[in-house]
TrEMBL record:
The chain holds residues 36 to 222 of 229 of the full protein. Its EC number is 3.6.1.41. It catalyses: P(1),P(4)-bis(5'-adenosyl) tetraphosphate + H2O = 2 ADP + 2 H(+). This is bis(5'-nucleosyl)-tetraphosphatase (symmetrical). Keywords: Hydrolase, Iron, Metal-binding, Nucleotide-binding. The gene is yqeK. It comes from the Bacteria. GO terms for molecular function: bis(5'-nucleosyl)-tetraphosphatase (symmetrical) activity; metal ion binding; nucleotide binding. It comes from Alicyclobacillus mengziensis. The keyword Hydrolase applies. Residues 15-141 form the HD/PDEase domain.
Amino acid sequence: DVTEQSIIDRVKEALSPARFMHTQGVVDTAANLAGRYGADVRWTRLGAWVHDIAREWPYQQLEQYAEQIEIPSGFALIPNLLHGPIAASIFRDWFGPDHADVENAIRYHTTGRPGMSKMEMILCLADAIEPSRKYPGVERIRELAERDLGEALAESLDSTIRYLLDRHEPIFPLTVMARNELWERYK
Ligand code: DGI
Ligand code: FE
Ligand code: FE
Ligand code: FE
């Protein structure tokens, strides 16, 4: 059996101190949201520990690994997004094939997608609002997160899209679809 401590050790080895701190923050925030909104706390924590494990790999290594696994279409066009699907694959290597929900939460943590499960929404939101995140509007998203998971995520996706537009970056289509699906619900 893989213990949480053995996962933490591997994550610590893979990440800079600052990104390890971020990951610790995502674990605590995601566990809190899982308790509040009724997702499985243990599996949410494990997914959160692993979510950024490939975040600091050099591009060559990401690209090489990506060739060996299934990458949802569009991910490969935006190198920053590859660390999600790769971390999901690593999670499967460690925990076996029976944790599709956790894998999807890791795979889509950067982008979101339409039809997200509770755990997917929680990890995506926790990544954006953990205590060391600082950007305009984060306080309001943190407050929303205490009241309504979907509304908080809608606001967070808006903020991500705004940020990317300001920098003239490409926008991943599933992010737009996720945002529109939530917009239907909260407009
Ligand atoms: O891995 P983290 O730094 O904790 O955060 P993340 O996984 O949410 O984001 C990784 C990076 O990806 C971040 O610099 C923003 C960028 N990003 C997120 N969504 C998109 C994106 N970049 C592009 N070009 N398009 C996207 O849709
Ligand atoms: Fe990430
Ligand atoms: Fe994110
Ligand atoms: Fe992250």
